[in-house]
Amino acid sequence: MAKTSFFHDTRRTKPGLPSVLKVAICQNRKTAYISLPVKVLPKQWDSKKCMVVKHPNQQVLNLHIKGAMQVVERTLFILGDEGRLPLMTAIEIRDEIERKLNPVKAEKKQEVEKRKTLFVTRFKMFADSKKPSTRGLYMHTLSRMRAFAGDKLDRLSFEDITKEWLTSFENFLAQTARKNSRNIHLRNIRAVFNEAIDDEITSFYPFRRFKIRPVATPKRNLKVEELRTLMTFPMEDYAVQYRDMFILMFMLLGINMVDLCNLKEIEDGRINYYRAKTGRLYSIKVEPEALEIIERYRGQNWLLNILERYEDYRDYTHRMNLSLKKIGPMKRVGRGGKKVYQPLFPKISTYWARHSWATIAASLDIPKETIAHALGHSANSVTDIYIEFDQRKVDVANRRVLDWVLYGKK
């Protein structure tokens, strides 16, 4: 059975200052507290008589204490009479008593707790936990949702985001966005639902019935013959470095540009780094052909000199993508000798290095599991905790890919 008592809490009060009076509720060896609007010095509290003494307002304070105790006793009696009391925790009893002691405050507190479970509140909390670039994507999704739902969005619970709501939202997005862009917004919403379920905020999940249909992506890789052409094609001097960086990315298992730019050194013939996107540790063996390119563009403070010549990796990536798209036959026309390009690969970008490596590896019948580990895609993250993948398999796979592309050896 629950027990209550008054507790003069002096634990966090400096000597000489008044401390707050609390009601302690004990149930099943757990204690919860309710703070009363009563602050007195230790000498002004008689714990045996449960009353304030030697205080200029002691009469008013004691009336307040007496009234609070009557509310506590009446609430416990009602809960016991209804048969609820034995099943309640100390915190649940405290909340019930607080609602009776201060209905206005309890209502405001309940409203705050309710707002925490609203979809928009949880969505913003989820977005704020991400890196700035990822947070920007989620906030863009939020802006599209607001454009669709208006001010009603702020009042939506998770249960309001039904299959029908998602269907209407997707139809709204279809007016201005392609399927892949729509899927990004829908996946962002789904991620917030998944976290809310994990945190026991809701058990509602509309994505059991509402399916996000994937879209086939266009070609984003070079065939072996095309890659060989890119390596040997005579091009303008300014484009050589961009071509070389693309080939280096390919030789390093399709490493991302941000990670390539931030490499510091080679240790025991390998580059070891944490991928910026996932924070996952990578270790790649540097083959002689890759080392040759690295030596050509060695930096002083970085492994490569990219960040010593350009503002940041985004600036370099932008310039590199533009230059790669121009590689091909070029002729000058008109009196001014304007350059006109006939691009070999008009849609190529840095991402193609990663896709090309994976595609060529698959064509050599390298196991999907090995390719997945090379790219940092874990087939079973739980199993990976217990089983350390043999990195030598990735090293051998990369050597096979390079031998095929560079020397025609399978």
Fill in the keyword field for this structure.
hpI Integrase, Chain A; 410 residues; elongated; 3-stranded antiparallel sheet; two-stranded antiparallel ribbon; mainly alpha; single chain; 3 domains
Give a short summary of the structure.
By secondary structure, this protein is mainly alpha-helical. It has helices spanning 58-81, 90-101, 103-116, 119-128, 132-149, 163-173, 179-198, 224-232, 237-251, 257-261, 288-296, 306-309, 313-326, 351-363, 368-375, 381-386, 391-407, and strands at 3-9, 19-27, 30-40, 45-46, 51-52, 270-274, 281-285, 330-333, 338-341.
Structure report:
By secondary structure, the protein is mainly alpha-helical. It folds into 3 domains: 3-114, no CATH class; 119-208; 224-407, hpI Integrase, Chain A (Orthogonal Bundle), CATH 1.10.443. The protein is built from 17 helices and 9 strands. It has a 3-stranded antiparallel beta sheet with strand order 1-2-3, covered by helices on one side. Strand 4 and strand 5 (51-52) form a beta hairpin. The longest helix has 24 residues, at 58-81.
